[in-house]
Amino acid sequence: MTLSGEFLAFMSLALVAVIGGVLLLNLTKVVHMVVALVFTFVSIAGIYVLLSAEFLAAVQILIYSGAITIIMLFGIMLTRHNDTSEPKTGRWRKLLLFLGVLGFAFAVYIGIYNLDLPAAPNDLHVNNTEQIGIELYSKFIIPFEVTSVLLLVALIGSIVLAKKDDEKEAEKE
Amino acid sequence: MELWNLYQNNYLIVFVFLCLGVILPVVALFLGKLLRPYKPYDTKYTTYESGIEPFHDSRVQFNVRYYIFALMFVIFDVETVFLYPWAVAYEKLGIFALIEMLIFVFMLVIGLVYAWKKKVLKWI
């Protein structure tokens, strides 16, 4: 692998993504965690750009670092946050976890080391959004319509769940 | 391919702007910390409540109602994302795509009407 600009960009983006994930787990204040998560999302969008999936990158920024983050912030505000962290776990558990992580890393390494994916010639970078549109609305109509049903179910389900609490509160008052 | 590389190099400018956006608040807050005087005492840090002694935590638990607003925002955001490629490729897709999209939007309108009827949209 040569040290090209693309490689450098990928490495730094991947590094930011991983560091964001680790910080998300290790920071104590919830809002800081959300900021770390935003860094992860944005760097993943950068990786999409490197893969010349520009529409996907825009969607990643729009949906994940915009909407999902907002929903997480709301989730945080809904819960009681007294900033009490769990007591640290024992040494044995840490060791076992470390071994597990090592084993997983080893398995993945063996899996991908000699993996040869021939680069299929594509022209993704030409009119990316239009290509997605043509594929989506001529070949994948049924999944697309099922997506709308899924969104509908999510909307109605959330309303049913949240409204129930509301009525109980009204009864209390 | 040459042109493509040239095009992708333009993302350097995006990167520069991203860095500026991250660095600017950090530098501003850091400079503010350097410049401002720091003389803390307890009464300075209490919340001002018309002269009444403040009690409890200032952060309260929010109502579930606001969460539905956030969730509906996400759902309609996803809908918008599906609209973009449809609008771009509309010229090449023809009338059938219009019908597809109408079904899609209709599904979500059902959800919106349901939310409306359940009085979720009311801001109290």
At the fourth level of CATH, the homologous superfamily of the largest domain in chain A is: NADH-ubiquinone/plastoquinone oxidoreductase chain 6, subunit NuoJ
Straight-line distance between termini of chain A = 67 Å
- Mean pLDDT across all amino acids of chain A: 83
Order of helices and strands of chain A: HHHHHH
Over the alpha carbons, how many angstroms does the gyration radius of chain B reach? Answer: 25 Å
Q: Give the DSSP E fraction of chain B (strand runs of 2 or more residues).
A: under 5%
**Fraction of residues in H or I helices of chain A:** over 70%
What average pLDDT do the residues of chain B reach?
83
- Secondary structure category of chain A: mainly alpha
Please identify, by name, the CATH architecture of the largest domain in chain A: Up-down Bundle
Largest sheet descriptor of chain A: none
Describe this structure in words.
Chain A: The chain crosses the membrane at residues 6-25, 30-49, 55-74, 95-115, 140-162. The complex is a heterodimer of chains A (173) and B (124). By secondary structure, chain A is mainly α. Chain A folds into two domains: 1-85, NADH-ubiquinone/plastoquinone oxidoreductase chain 6, subunit NuoJ (Four Helix Bundle (Hemerythrin (Met), subunit A)), CATH 1.20.120; 126-163. Chain A is extended, with a radius of gyration of 22 Å. Chain A is built from six helices and no strands. Chain A starts with a helix and ends with a helix. With 124 residues, chain B is mainly alpha-helical. Chain B has five helices and no strands. Chain B has helices at residues 2-9, 11-35, 64-88, 90-93, 95-117. The longest helix of chain B is centred in the first third of the chain and has 25 residues, at 11-35. Chain B is flat, with a radius of gyration of 25 Å. Chain B starts with a helix and ends in a 7-residue tail after the last helix. The interface between A and B is large, with 48 and 48 residues.
